[in-house]
Amino acid sequence: MELIGADHPQYDVLRRLALPQYRAIRPAAIARCADPSDVAEALTYARAHALPVALRGGGHCFAGRSSTTGLLLDLSALNSVSVADGQAAIGAGARLADVYRGLHEHRLTIPAGCGPTVGIAGLTLGGGLGLLGRRYGLTCDRLVGATVVLADGRVVECSDEQEPDLFWALRGAGGGQFGVVTSLVFAAVPSPTATRFTLTYPRDRAAAVIAAWQSWAPDAPDHLTASLAVTADEVRVFGAAVGDADFGELASLDPAVELRDGLSWPELKRSFSDEDVQDDRVVYSKSEFFGSPLPCDTIAQLLAAGCELGFTPMGGAYNRVPADATAFAHRGERFLLEHASPDRTAVRRSWSIAHPHASGRLYPNFPDPYLTDLIAYHGGNYERLLAIKQAYDPDHIFGGLR
Ligand SMILES: Cc1cc2nc3c(=O)[nH]c(=O)nc-3n(C[C@H](O)[C@H](O)[C@H](O)COP(=O)(O)OP(=O)(O)OC[C@H]3O[C@@H](n4cnc5c(N)ncnc54)[C@H](O)[C@@H]3O)c2cc1C
């Protein structure tokens, strides 16, 4: 383990790898970990110096849980990607761009998100929504094993056969709660060729587009994932199809249509987000799941409230897994709605308009720092998760469930 203090030249670089709103937080020290024994050593150090710990993969936690004034465990050196027998072994510090590139060399991939610098561990431990998800499920649904350093420094392998309760909890309860994952093994899927599509509409057609989208996208064929974004200027329906792209009623609302055929999976992912572009804007957001469509008058009020709105479709393979089969409890939802703005009050107002129609459930990977009702993240899985937390982290070395 390399211990990096505030006087080390790398200290500020590593500390700042978080979302902009958490970049000012200064850890007492940063432990750079390259293998499970480094992680165990870091946990011993934290205990000896009575320091709280935070674990960091890609540093994208919306609630700042991978930042601390105590000991920050930086896992970015654990970034290997290898393939054997159709299974992908991925170091917990790898970022999604590394994962897609590494697996594509074997003509494989996994269903996972679009942000190229998002960490594979944080994404997987909280679920993992992405453009192949309606076909193959959450990222965590493809997880078949993991190596974990427990709070007491023991290193365990977990799977359906070994430490099955821990393995269940790792699939969708949210990162940083049960132990430090050092590597993940996934059942990979073929890396497809896809069509990227964007349907752009003028902003004044937003109400009609949202109404058409919400009754179509969650029930679209599994090979097609269409998200919806409403900004101050326009409305966009965008996503990918691994096969025919048919847009139902949305096509009749007269969009400008852009199609890019024949993209390899890494090309498609890059087309959505460039890993070299760093966005330093502070944007606040709040989100919830919805199990039924929003009424027309609510849509009108939301549009008047002025936040950016992002709709992500659920359904398909996400919802074919029983809610208690993994820790991810949200298996009957139709979509996720995110409200975003640099103005936190505006976000709260927009969220309050939609909230009466929501299912009251939250995606663990979009945590809300102000939410105290943890059942919203875990639904009927909450009690089992509490028992697993008590068994694996009785002294609350890691954060989360109480
Ligand atoms: C730009 C952007 C794009 C996104 N795109 C998507 C998307 O397409 N699909 C989607 O589902 N989500 C998406 N998200 C949300 C994303 O899944 C979560 O923010 C996720 O938690 C990020 O993981 P991370 O490793 O990057 O972040 P971190 O902040 O490093 O970690 C997130 C949480 O996991 C814990 N953790 C990290 N590593 C480990 C480990 N090895 N062992 C145990 N716990 C660990 C941390 O302590 C923290 O609590 C996006 C977020 C952003 C900011």
From TrEMBL:
Any one GO molecular-function label of the UniProt entry: FAD binding
Keyword Oxidoreductase: yes
Record domain FAD-binding PCMH-type: where: 23-191
Pfam families: BBE, FAD_binding_4
SUPFAM superfamilies: FAD-binding/transporter-associated domain-like (SSF56176)
InterPro entries documented for this protein: BBE (IPR012951), FAD-bd_PCMH (IPR016166), FAD-bd_PCMH-like_sf (IPR036318), FAD-bd_PCMH_sub1 (IPR016167), FAD-bd_PCMH_sub2 (IPR016169), FAD-linked_Oxidoreductase (IPR050416), Oxid_FAD_bind_N (IPR006094), Oxy_OxRdtase_FAD_BS (IPR006093)
Superkingdom as given in the UniProt entry: Bacteria
Name this protein carries in UniProt: FAD/FMN-containing dehydrogenase
Species annotation: Kribbella rubisoli
